[in-house]
Amino acid sequence: MTTADRLASCTAAAALSPLPPALRIAAIIPCYNEALAIPKVVADFRADLPEAQIHIFDNNSTDGTAEVARAHGAQVVHVPLRGKGNVVRRMFADVEADIYIMVDGDATYDLSTVREMIRMLVEQKLDMVVGARVDDQSDAQTYRRGHRLGNQMLTGAVSGLFGGSFTDMLSGFRVFSRRYVKSFPALAKGFEIETELTVHALELRMPYAEVPSVYRSRPEGSVSKLSTYRDGWRILVTISKLFVSERPLMFFAILAGLLALAAVGLAIPLAMTFWETGLVPRLPTAVLATGLMLSAMLALVCGAVLHTVTIGRQEAKRLRYLAMPAAGSESWQDGACG
Fold this sequence. Notes:
This protein has 338 residues and is α/β, with parallel strands linked by helices. It contains twelve helices and seven strands.
């Protein structure tokens, strides 16, 4: 099935039976200077998902975004700490719902598939459904080739380190279950938050899915806040940090292997000289080789200790996750209706 066929299928499915009435659905929208775009985002939600409560989290905008959002009937929360990661942390903490739809406030995401994404999450008892971006082909600058290549490289790096089958790890259009949101310890400050969201699902082995979603041009006059190189570097650093914190044994085992290899490489000529003459003429090299081997052993021990700590952290998050029922389950329906 082609991408166009899948998009048509999702759009057609959105017109099927309504969602369960017991669902509390919240649209959570991070915004920074999006006064030109936010009216369309609110209007799209009113048209495609009128059941949703719309929450705009304004991140110190200077163009009147908050006033425009209020004028269009959205609930607005001011977040003084600059950065998308800080906004997401506040959104997940403040909003109470059963289903959360997070979408950027720049009006670039087509919301026509949102009902199908929610239905998929409920019926299949998923915890995250990602709207994988598909260029609408109307403007070459909408989803530039460089951005697409960078996304593929970063998504591939996460897949290689943590597993998973994501094709668009950096999408800003996602549907979450309550148990995902309330078990997510947001640490990122900026645009690297999408990486953290993805790795959280992979580390707890949550069920997830991707749905193709049309990616459109920004409204005329609005400007992207994404810095290609600066934010790309931050995302790469975040992937590295998550690799160390979530895969410490693997990281330190690789480091130990490299140190041990260097130590052996330095020690072999010394051993050959000692075998032939019974002397160690290059004492500093011998000390260096010994130090490298000790460092390798220490790195391996550090990896083993941190691996135990990581397991404890993951178990704590997993228990928090399991404390809440899946959307659509009998216990969830009892709690929602009661």
